[in-house]
Amino acid sequence: MSLNAEFLGRLHPLLLHFPIALLWVAGVVEILRLKKDSLFLSRCMIALMAIGAISALLASGSGWLLAAHENIRKDELETLFLHRWLGVATTVVGFAGWFAAARWRESATRGQVWTRRLLIWISTGLLTAAAHYGATIVWGSDWLTP
After folding, report:
1. Dihedral in degrees, nearest 10, Cα atoms 129, 17, 21, 54
2. CA atoms within 13 A on the CB side of 112
3. Interval 14-51: pLDDT, tens
4. Rounded distance, CA 90 to CA 94, Å?
């Protein structure tokens, strides 16, 4: 592996925090929109999903590069597999949520609104699962227990 690829992989711990924060905030904003929607919240959602999806792509790509040159223990391979593919799924669904938020921001049908909401909330759920498995790789399987 080239030195550049190794360097980009080592950026994964830095890059992963952006999609976590942005996609989680997007999920919360979408909940707020259930109570009262506005043009401001619609624009916020598009920005959050855009930056969240793009940063998820960067985090996923750097994660794959990082795993390519790290020595992964055999007992961590299944966890790495889940972490990788949940990260990819987060990215794909995040982009779909961004496109839905941008396309259906005005004059959306009820079905389009709920499709947008589900895409955003599913991306948040996938992200949470991917983050959990990533933390398990770094901190061990008992990282949540005191």
Report:
1. -90
2. 12
3. 999 999 999 999 999 999 999 998 999 999 999 999 99
4. 6
